């Protein structure tokens, strides 16, 4: 009597059109979250993406899943910008400058309220994306610091807070109108990071752990 050999099943890969639809949903959600906040109706996201409601829910069973994917996608692009900066062989501070401006264009400022008011911040996908960004930005800054171009009393948290705050339009102004000034104000901030420092900063360099610590 012969023993039956188990049949190995092939894992079906997502179809190309399914992947494109998922990307369109994430892109549309990112745009609408920036414009209207994370509570925007998912039906509106579907219309912006040009897909049916069922397609949205087939990819993302609830709002938390979609918001998490948007946050991770922005973090991934920010990490790639940091990797590009590290790959440059020229001026280390110029590479840091380019990273900061690209990060602002990714609308990283929109992540702050979404992360703080919605889902589990310790989800493995979020933790992995966050740690990758922090590690790479730290390396970009370390290289500029080693070159004697970056002041020694600033941390990754200082840079990320500044990018988030300066790329967020002031209260009472239109988003697109505020966008005209983002890179101008970011450059003013970057000039303040250059070594040698012109003044002593109060307090200590801000780490990302400082930003996650609960308020007293």
From TrEMBL:
SUPFAM superfamilies registered for this protein in UniProt: Homeodomain-like, Tetracyclin repressor-like, C-terminal domain
Membrane-crossing segments per the record: none
GO molecular function annotation: DNA-binding transcription factor activity; transcription cis-regulatory region binding
Superkingdom per UniProt: Bacteria
InterPro entries noted in UniProt: Homeodomain-like_sf, HTH-type_TetR-like_transc_reg, HTH_TetR, Tet_transcr_reg_TetR-rel_C_sf, TetR_SbtR-like_C
Record's keyword terms, sorted: DNA-binding, Transcription, Transcription regulation
Descriptive protein name: TetR family transcriptional regulator
Organism: Streptomyces fumanus
PANTHER family found in the cross-reference section: HTH-TYPE TRANSCRIPTIONAL REGULATOR BETI (PTHR30055:SF234), HTH-TYPE TRANSCRIPTIONAL REGULATOR RUTR (PTHR30055)
Residues annotated to bind DNA: 41-60
Pfam families in alphabetical order: TetR_C_43, TetR_N
Residue span(s) of domain HTH tetR-type: 19-78
Keyword Heme: no
